[in-house]
Amino acid sequence: MIPGARLIILGRQGAGKGTQCVRLSRHFVVPHISTGDMLRAAVREGTPLGQAAKEVMDSGGLVGDETMVGIVSERLNSDDARTRGYILDGFPRTVGQAEALDLVTGERPLDAVIDLDVPRSLVLERLSARRVCRDCGTNYVASGNERQPWICEVCGGDVMYRADDTPDAINNRLDLYEQQTSPLINYYQATGRLTVVDGVASPDEVFARLTAAVEASRRK
């Protein structure tokens, strides 16, 4: 394994991108850049960006391209991302964002663009079971056997539904994915940069598939 990588992980929400990106980040020794986490942190902190994004996120919408490109560009210019690489999770989500990212990366092209493919019916089940700590943001998956009130094992805060995981918001996000994000598959496929990885397997098996896909892409 060669340390360092510049990766994009695509896929529906609930496909397991966050879990796998954390493992890939450790494996390749690069920062995991999650735009969703960045936005949720801004909402919790009440920053101007957070206030502007909250209403959009709560309804299941996507934050505008200009805002997202600015956030990501600034992060990619940080020392760790410039020297070691990065894993982008949740960005780009539109062809416009992808085109802007190509301009930003320029002399430091991507090693791989991976679509973690999980059927919509399965991600609906997964998203409906997601819970989050109100205080520290730790994520959980409900089994139905949890004691109530559900207390976070990390900080002792209350574990609850994410504000943007209502049934309507989940379906809105998945619909938006099909309408706006799916064309990214064609965009990256047309330039020979896309690899599709089946995300329906155990976490360890999916991780093995992802690392193999990255190494294969590097050999092209």
From TrEMBL:
Alphabetical list of InterPro entries matching this protein: Adenyl_kin_sub, Adenylat/UMP-CMP_kin, Adenylat_kinase_CS, P-loop_NTPase
UniProt key word Kinase: yes
Keywords: Kinase, Nucleotide-binding, Transferase
GO molecular function: AMP kinase activity; ATP binding
Lineage, highest ranks first: unclassified sequences, metagenomes, ecological metagenomes
Protein name: Unannotated protein
Organism name: freshwater metagenome
PANTHER family: NUCLEOTIDE KINASE
